[in-house]
């Protein structure tokens, strides 16, 4: 079945009918294809988090509709029948280790599947499977999640979400606050889930290096409007656009640009750092 | 963001004579008038009180909408108490009687007074919260508690505690929202099913919230210590709320209004 | 000769029920006006070390001398007057609901009188370019703005030493840059000594020296320029190899003569274009 995500004329206002009312999403139309890796970028407060919360109906639009596979979410969607949708759409929040609560890591991972009505005898297999994916040692499973280090807690929290076997995975700044090693691990994990398990990835991020390196498509949000949806190289090759949307330049783009300005011109834009290094070295060797 | 609204969303920074009052005087008078409401017992004394509160609302330049917002959350409790008054009180002229239901003139009169009492008290406290920011309230309380210092009550520590608690309300509100969203995404239905199930569904919210609150407290205490805070040491205060002629005048006004209420009492 | 402002002599520290020292026989000294970075993975003892330096916890062995004062209960207040710390998470260092009152917190604790306090707070906020947010609620500010407010609270008490405890790790690159530039400016203006715990090479490159911690031990005391050259396992210290450094190492591997010192983005671009134009 096709699990693409479709927004049609979605409008969302915070604190409706109060003096503090403001429009968080202004007539959003978009399509995210099943199996793709899409990044959502934009300044803090541009509406990124509000946008993704509509995909599993944590927020419901004031008007317009959202389709996720065969689900339709609109202003009248009932809170009662959302389990199937939420099982399909996994959501990793910023600092997800905040959600840990159970006595043991094992129980914390089992919590989601049990809520979604998985058979109890299948749970141990699920726990084992996802803890392996996120690289949590077996002997940690019976420990309290609060005894683990920050990096390990983050992995458990991601395992929590993977345990329900989502087809669409939304991640809000999943690497924030981790050390470089932890960051690399999480980004590789996400990429692997997308490439090898065909999970649709929707990544909200400020890390333009990651966005440039991994995404198939980029969505740019600004003041509650979707201002651009395009391929990463289309966005990152255009410094005027980056400036206009107040986005950080990926290091690879920055170096490329600086070299260009000083007369060292490469034929292609290399978003991947290793590709860029090779291109530079090859060009230097040529002469 | 209900909790946020409850405490912070109410303060409207504006330039009114009530906004400018000394917070200690304002809190004291608010309590004083709430007590005074209970002394009203006749149509005239209630009317006088209402008139006075309407003048206050006018002086505070607050939109009437905010007062309805203050009343709405309590509307069921108000209607319930009023219904009991109307249906079950005895005395006065009987209007209608069926089974245990007893509608009398006395009951209706009491219900009207009760209703006015509710409205008056809510309006008075709303005037206070609309015109005074939470920080001023905490300073005001600590000024009012100052006499307790003589009894070795740690007034300074207490007032710092209140202001830190207030400062963490938005932080913890945000965290509550995020944790709720995270657990909802993991299939939790907050507040559905039977009582046991409902209570149980809050465990995945409360435990992370406590863990986080303890973490905040731990880190904050380190930060405070490193910034030179020592418990029970004397501290000076950045804010000094002045005492204006209007504050003095308002105290006299309170005495004057009390006299009117007592004269109009039955 | 520069004055020795921090002198750490053979200190060790063990947490209550741990079976290992969190800090293990550590000795080093820092000169007045120096900028020293401390790097190491989580659990290497960085934060414990900071807490020891500010007298928030007491070492089991050894002495710490800050500006000629030995840390003990008697000197604690004096020592904290000399040290200001900006912590990692802004959420956990604010006590007040307005910016101005938060900046005043350290001054209130030191019993400054009102008129003086108001002036100092305004000046401190001006230094970090946050004066116009004086009446704002700190929790409504962006992370970078919050750290600037925290910095204002620290410089208000005129410390001699500023400790940055991963103060920029939660900020976006732009906000990071603003904080680092501010520190650089204030350091010169107020003759500050800076001690910074960090993972960020953009920050480390400004420091005079880097201390590498591992399992509570001081492994190396090294110039930031030599970091990547002398260590082939920087990732074990929680450090990311910056792009410019990856490029430099690859160029070297391919036989280009680019030297052994760390160079940043601007410098490597310059090197490449110069090399290219000479061809």
Automatic annotation (TrEMBL), chain A:
<keyword id="KW-0472">Membrane</keyword>
<dbReference type="InterPro" id="IPR003439">
    <property type="entry name" value="ABC_transporter-like_ATP-bd"/>
</dbReference>
<keyword id="KW-0067">ATP-binding</keyword>
<keyword id="KW-1278">Translocase</keyword>
<feature type="domain" description="ABC transporter">
    <location>
        <begin position="5"/>
        <end position="248"/>
    </location>
</feature>
<keyword id="KW-1003">Cell membrane</keyword>
<keyword id="KW-0813">Transport</keyword>
<dbReference type="InterPro" id="IPR050095">
    <property type="entry name" value="ECF_ABC_transporter_ATP-bd"/>
</dbReference>
<dbReference type="Pfam" id="PF00005">
    <property type="entry name" value="ABC_tran"/>
</dbReference>
<comment type="function">
    <text>ATP-binding (A) component of a common energy-coupling factor (ECF) ABC-transporter complex.</text>
</comment>
<comment type="subunit">
    <text>Forms a stable energy-coupling factor (ECF) transporter complex composed of 2 membrane-embedded substrate-binding proteins (S component), 2 ATP-binding proteins (A component) and 2 transmembrane proteins (T component).</text>
</comment>
<dbReference type="InterPro" id="IPR030946">
    <property type="entry name" value="EcfA2"/>
</dbReference>
<dbReference type="InterPro" id="IPR003593">
    <property type="entry name" value="AAA+_ATPase"/>
</dbReference>
<comment type="similarity">
    <text>Belongs to the ABC transporter superfamily. Energy-coupling factor EcfA family.</text>
</comment>
<protein>
    <recommendedName>
        <fullName>Energy-coupling factor transporter ATP-binding protein EcfA2</fullName>
        <ecNumber>7.-.-.-</ecNumber>
    </recommendedName>
</protein>
<dbReference type="InterPro" id="IPR017871">
    <property type="entry name" value="ABC_transporter-like_CS"/>
</dbReference>
<keyword id="KW-0547">Nucleotide-binding</keyword>
<dbReference type="InterPro" id="IPR015856">
    <property type="entry name" value="ABC_transpr_CbiO/EcfA_su"/>
</dbReference>
<dbReference type="InterPro" id="IPR027417">
    <property type="entry name" value="P-loop_NTPase"/>
</dbReference>
From TrEMBL, chain C:
<keyword id="KW-1278">Translocase</keyword>
<dbReference type="InterPro" id="IPR003593">
    <property type="entry name" value="AAA+_ATPase"/>
</dbReference>
<dbReference type="InterPro" id="IPR015856">
    <property type="entry name" value="ABC_transpr_CbiO/EcfA_su"/>
</dbReference>
<dbReference type="Pfam" id="PF00005">
    <property type="entry name" value="ABC_tran"/>
</dbReference>
<dbReference type="InterPro" id="IPR050095">
    <property type="entry name" value="ECF_ABC_transporter_ATP-bd"/>
</dbReference>
<feature type="domain" description="ABC transporter">
    <location>
        <begin position="6"/>
        <end position="240"/>
    </location>
</feature>
<keyword id="KW-0547">Nucleotide-binding</keyword>
<comment type="similarity">
    <text>Belongs to the ABC transporter superfamily.</text>
</comment>
<dbReference type="InterPro" id="IPR003439">
    <property type="entry name" value="ABC_transporter-like_ATP-bd"/>
</dbReference>
<dbReference type="InterPro" id="IPR017871">
    <property type="entry name" value="ABC_transporter-like_CS"/>
</dbReference>
<protein>
    <submittedName>
        <fullName>Energy-coupling factor transporter ATPase</fullName>
    </submittedName>
</protein>
<dbReference type="InterPro" id="IPR027417">
    <property type="entry name" value="P-loop_NTPase"/>
</dbReference>
<dbReference type="InterPro" id="IPR030947">
    <property type="entry name" value="EcfA_1"/>
</dbReference>
<keyword id="KW-1003">Cell membrane</keyword>
<keyword id="KW-0067">ATP-binding</keyword>
<keyword id="KW-0472">Membrane</keyword>
<keyword id="KW-0813">Transport</keyword>
């Amino acid at each position: 079945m096709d699990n693409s995500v479709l927004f049609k004329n979605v409008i969302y206002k915070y604190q409706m009918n109060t003096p503090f009312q403001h429009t968080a999403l202004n007539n959003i139309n978009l399509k995210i294809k099943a199996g793709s890796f899409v990044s959502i970028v934009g300044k803090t407060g541009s509406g990124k988090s509000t946008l993704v919360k509509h995909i599993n109906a944590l927020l419901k639009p004031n008007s317009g509709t959202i389709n996720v596979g065969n689900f339709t979410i609109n202003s009248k969607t009932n809170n009662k029948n959302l389990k199937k949708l939420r099982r399909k759409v996994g959501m990793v929040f910023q600092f997800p280790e905040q959600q840990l609560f159970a006595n043991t890591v094992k129980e914390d991972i089992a919590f989601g599947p049990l809520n979604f009505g998985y058979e109890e005898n299948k749970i141990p297999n699920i726990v084992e499977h996802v803890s392996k994916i996120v690289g949590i040692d077996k002997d940690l499973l019976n420990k309290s999640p609060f005894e683990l280090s920050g990096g390990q807690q983050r992995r458990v929290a991601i395992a929590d979400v993977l345990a329900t076997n989502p087809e669409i995975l939304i991640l809000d700044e999943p690497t924030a606050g981790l050390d470089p090693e932890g960051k690399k691990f999480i980004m590789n994990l996400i990429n692997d889930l997308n490439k090898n398990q065909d999970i649709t990835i929707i990544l909200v991020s400020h890390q333009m290096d990651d966005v440039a390196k991994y995404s198939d498509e980029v969505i740019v949000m600004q003041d509650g409007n979707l201002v651009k949806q395009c391929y990463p190289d289309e966005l990152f090759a255009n410094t005027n656009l980056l400036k206009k949307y107040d986005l950080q330049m990926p290091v690879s783009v920055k170096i490329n640009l600086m070299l260009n300005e000083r007369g060292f011109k490469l034929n292609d834009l290399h978003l991947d750092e290793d590709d860029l290094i090779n291109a530079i070295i090859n060009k230097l060797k040529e002469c | 963001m209900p909790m946020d609204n409850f405490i912070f969303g109410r303060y409207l920074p504006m330039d009114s004579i009530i906004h400018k009052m000394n917070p200690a005087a304002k809190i004291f008078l608010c309590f004083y008038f709430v007590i005074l409401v209970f002394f009203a017992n006749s149509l005239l004394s209630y009317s006088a009180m209402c008139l006075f509160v309407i003048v206050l609302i006018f002086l505070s330049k607050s939109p009437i909408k905010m007062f309805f917002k203050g009343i709405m959350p309590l509307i069921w409790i108000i209607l319930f108490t009023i219904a009991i008054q109307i249906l079950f009180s005895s005395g006065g002229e009987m209007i209608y009687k069926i089974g245990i239901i007893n509608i009398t003139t006395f009951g209706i009169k009491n219900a009207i007074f009760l209703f006015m009492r509710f409205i008056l008290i809510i309006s008075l406290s709303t005037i206070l919260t609309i015109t005074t920011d939470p920080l001023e309230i905490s300073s005001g309380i600590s000024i009012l508690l100052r006499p307790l210092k003589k009894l070795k009550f740690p007034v300074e520590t207490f007032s710092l505690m209140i202001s830190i608690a207030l400062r963490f309300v938005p932080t913890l509100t945000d965290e509550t929202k995020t944790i709720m969203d995270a657990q909802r995404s993991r299939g939790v239905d907050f507040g559905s099913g039977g009582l046991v199930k409902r209570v149980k569904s809050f465990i995945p919210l409360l435990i992370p919230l406590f863990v986080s609150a303890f973490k905040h407290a731990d880190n904050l205490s380190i930060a405070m210590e490193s910034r030179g805070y020592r418990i029970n040491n004397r501290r000076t205060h950045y804010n000094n709320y002045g005492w204006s002629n209007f504050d003095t005048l308002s105290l006299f006004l309170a005495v004057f209004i009390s006299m009117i209420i007592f004269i109009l009492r039955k | 000769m520069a004055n020795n402002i921090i002198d750490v002599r053979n200190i060790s520290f063990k947490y209550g029920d741990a079976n290992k020292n969190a800090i293990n026989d550590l000795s080093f000294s820092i000169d007045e006006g120096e900028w020293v970075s401390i790097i190491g993975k989580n659990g290497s003892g960085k934060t414990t070390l900071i807490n020891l330096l500010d007298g928030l916890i007491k070492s089991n062995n050894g002495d710490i001398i800050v500006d000629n004062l030995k840390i003990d209960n008697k000197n604690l207040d004096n020592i904290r007057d000399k040290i200001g710390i900006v912590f990692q998470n802004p959420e956990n260092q604010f006590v007040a609901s307005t910016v101005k009152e938060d900046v005043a917190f350290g001054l209130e604790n030191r019993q400054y009188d009102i008129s003086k306090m108001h002036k100092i707070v305004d000046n401190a906020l001006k230094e970090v370019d946050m004066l116009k947010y004086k009446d704002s609620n700190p929790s409504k500010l962006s992370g970078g703005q919050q750290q600037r407010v925290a910095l204002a609270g620290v410089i208000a008490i005129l410390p001699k030493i500023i400790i940055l405890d991963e103060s920029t790790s939660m900020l976006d690159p732009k906000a990071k840059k603003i904080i680092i530039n501010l520190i650089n400016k204030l350091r010169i203006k107020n003759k500050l000594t800076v001690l910074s715990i960090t993972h960020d090479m953009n920050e480390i490159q400004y420091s005079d020296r880097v201390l590498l911690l591992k399992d509570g031990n001081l492994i190396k005391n090294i110039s930031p320029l030599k970091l990547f050259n002398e260590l082939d396992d920087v990732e074990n210290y929680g450090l990311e190899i910056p792009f410019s450094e990856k490029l430099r190492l690859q160029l070297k591997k391919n036989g280009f003569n680019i030297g052994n010192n760390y160079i940043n983005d601007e410098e490597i671009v310059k090197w490449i274009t110069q090399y290219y134009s000479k061809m």
